[in-house]
Specification:
Largest interface: A-B, 47 and 47 residues
Number of strands of chain A: 2
Mean pLDDT of chain A: 83
Distance between the termini of chain A: 49 Å
Helix content of chain A: 55-70%
Number of helices of chain A: 6
CATH topology of the largest domain in chain A: Multidrug-efflux Transporter Regulator, Chain: A, Domain 2
Radius of gyration of chain A: 21 Å
Number of domains of chain A: 2
Oligomer: homodimer
Shape of chain A: elongated
Chain lengths: ~140, ~140
DNA sequence: TCTTGACCTCAAGGCGACTTGAGGTCCTAG
DNA sequence: CTAGGACCTCAAGTCGCCTTGAGGTCAAGA
């Protein structure tokens, strides 16, 4: 099985080498060793990088993503944790759906002022309704 | 109609005053004037802040959010732009759904190594399928 | 009038996620 | 053996989104 130079991974994953080095540094991916100075990546890293891309697209931090898939890309995590992440994602999806619907409504609503449109206000209110704790991490 | 001090807005919106000042500075919200030094906010700002929160939760930058709702909180934008944003959001939602399904699958799959599970690979591959340039950092 | 304290400004700091630059190393081809 | 270039390290810089801190102002109440 052939290993990949960082340049090859970079090209196939669509990420700059600097990003890959960074990911390795923080333990999100791992190389199998070196050829001289050069990191050698196993082909699986490409799949891992896809998972990482998915996680990012879904709004998770690299830290959280590491928490989902382990440093080796294999989810050796307790199933409960994974289900929890999935639930988190579900809530997130509902929020996005609410925003999408609001946007679509706004695009179609003939009301002169959206702030006065009942549907609009309802959509926004509904979106806020189930927002709970997971808010802004700060505080500390 | 009574106006709100920043502290009141802060409390009701669950955002620190510093964030509100920042939002005003970048033109995301606007105060109606001052009482002495104190900014006075119209009550509508609370609704605007909800929209902003929705946009953030959906993964948009403050810049993009400003682009959706205008500095006054009223979407005076061309409907096409709004529809476009909604479409963007739809794609985003699909990606998140894919990740959620992957996570759920992983939580339930009995395969010894997920990397070898066909379903897993299919889910990941499917997620990557329609990812296209949407370019990092939309700036000009 | 004086005090209180919620507000103000402005500059700097911080975090996540990288990028950039300078200067160095090593495989490979010729 | 030499040159080239893809790779390396490490420090510093960047961008978005705020927070923190120092020092200042003003409305209202005792």
């Amino acid at each position: 099985m052939r290993f990949l130079d960082i340049g090859e991974v970079s090209e196939r994953a669509g990420l700059p080498p600097s990003a890959l080095r960074y990911y390795e540094e923080i333990g999100l991916i791992a190389s199998v060793g070196r050829n001289g100075l050069r990191r050698q990546f196993p082909p699986e890293v490409l799949l891992q990088l896809k998972l990482i891309a998915m996680g990012k697209a879904a709004g998770f931090s690299l830290d959280e993503i590491a928490g989902m898939f382990g440093s080796n890309g294999e989810p050796d995590l307790p199933r409960a944790v994974l289900r929890d992440k999935a639930d988190q994602l579900d809530r997130h999806i509902r929020e996005m759906t609410a925003l999408r619907d609001t946007l679509r409504h706004v695009a179609d609503c003939p009301a002169p002022s959206h702030m006065e449109c009942a549907t609009f206000r309802r959509l926004v209110a509904a979106a806020g309704r189930r927002r709970r704790g997971r808010g802004r991490s700060s505080r500390g």
